[in-house]
Structures are given as structure tokens and as C-alpha cells.
């Protein structure tokens, strides 16, 4: 009897465990689905990033390998040329390198080697044509090309002195260093911002006629260039004051070059050879100038 009473009391004191919940509410199910979707997106993003990094590393390795092979081939061409290999053979190898390696024309080393071989077998104008082609191809880095061009101009000047020929234009030699500085140097002036521009000024376009750089170099050797020099128009956006008092400035302070209010005002005979030179102070490009002048269509 005592044992039965004790067992009954123990069972009464034992708490009932809650039954397991076998269903989820709509809110809980939605929360779980969102959580699973977020986890899946994280995993997918990590996989994509990993794949992207692998692809970039693979491309870098391929580019590095191609550049290394290109460098080795160009060094071999230079060694063979300096050892006395005929220039036509070197040119054929360089042409083959250019056709088989897609990055050859964008390599400064390729153009430096080609200019060196051309200097030993061709005219000075032919060498200048090689450097001009390098600039058009936007070969990188520009420093080796600039250095090679400087050294060539010095050698050309020495040869002209030995022949008793005077190089008339002295300015090109001073400007060679500026070829690679347009994109690398930081302007010392502050860029004009919309907040500090007064309403008393306006954007206009200054037109200067200049001789293209390589034409000036070719014209430096007076006995080898018989063709007339072509001038080309350089258009630069400038900020000019609209105050009437500026009209009374001394003549030396007034514009000596042609200044027009719109790109469309450029004379027709100049439009064939015109070059647009950005103004870093205004941070304007040719596309910006044309867009500003296009009329807005009424809706």
C-alpha cells in the first residue's frame, strides 16, 4: 500500500512535456525560406568571386607569359642586328612578331627595336615615321619611346652639324619630353568648379594653327624634306570674361588667336585637320562641348 501511494504521488508530481510542434505558421515558413535564399546567394556569390579571381589570375599569367615571350624575341632581334644580321631579315622577323603577337604594336620595346633597325638601314624620315606610328598605336610605357626619340634627335643633330647643315627649328627638341607628360603630370592649378564660376564669364574656343610635331622634326633636316609643311588647327576650350571693361584692355593683353563662341563656328577649311585639345582647368572634352551645343528637343 505504501509503495502504491508513493508511486502515485511521484506520477502526480511529474510535469507533462509539451507535444512536438508538427506544423509551421506562414510567417515562420517565409522567414525560413528567406534565410535559405540568403545563404544560397552568399554561397553563389563566393563561388562567383572565386571563379572571377581565378580567371583574372589566369589572364594575368597569360599576359605575363606573352609579354615575356615578346621581350625575349625582341632581345634576340636586337642581338642579331648588333651582331651584323642584315636589316631585311630583322624586319621580316619583326613583321612576323607583329602579326603573331597581338600586343606587339602596343609594346614600346617593339617600336624602339624597329626604330633602331630602321636608323641603321633607312633615312631619318623613316625613323621618324616609326616613332609616329608608335604614338598612334599608343604604345606603353611611353618613357622608353620618348627617351629613344630624344637620343635619335641628338644623333640626327650631330650628323647635320657634321654635314654642315643647320637644323632650323630648335623648338621640337625642347618639346619631346612633353609627349608623355600630358597623362602623367598633375596640373598645378585648381580645377574650376561650378560653385566658383561667375556669371561674367563664358566658355569659348581658341583656335591656333600649329605644325604637327613629327612634321617639324622632319623639316629640321632641310636637305631631306622638300614637301610643304601642313598646318593643323588646334582647338582648345577657354574661359573668357564677358565684362565690357575687358574690351578696353591693352592690345598685348587681348587674344591674338582666333576665338569662336561655338565648335560649329570653326571655319570649314580647318575642319579637315582640326585637333581638339582638352583644357584640364575646365575638365571639358570634345563630346561635352558638342553635347552642350546640341539643342534640346521639346517634348
From TrEMBL:
Biased region (Acidic residues) positions are 51-62
Chain spans, region Disordered: 1-67
Q: Which InterPro entries match?
A: CKAP2-like, CKAP2_C
Highest taxon above the source species: Eukaryota
Q: Where is the Cytoskeleton-associated protein 2 C-terminal domain?
A: 59-161, 182-282
Asked whether the UniProt record includes Phosphoprotein among its keywords, one would answer yes
A Gene Ontology term for the protein's cellular component: centrosome
User: Where is the chain membrane-spanning?
Assistant: none
**Predominant subcellular localization, coarse grouping:** cytoplasm
Q: Does the keyword Cytoplasm apply?
A: yes
Q: Where in the cell is it found?
A: Cytoplasm, Cytoskeleton
Xref: Pfam families: CKAP2_C
Annotated keywords: Cytoplasm, Cytoskeleton, Phosphoprotein
Q: Which family does it belong to?
A: Belongs to the CKAP2 family.
The protein's name: Cytoskeleton-associated protein 2-like
Organism in which the protein naturally occurs: Lingula anatina
Q: Name the gene that codes for it.
A: LOC106178612
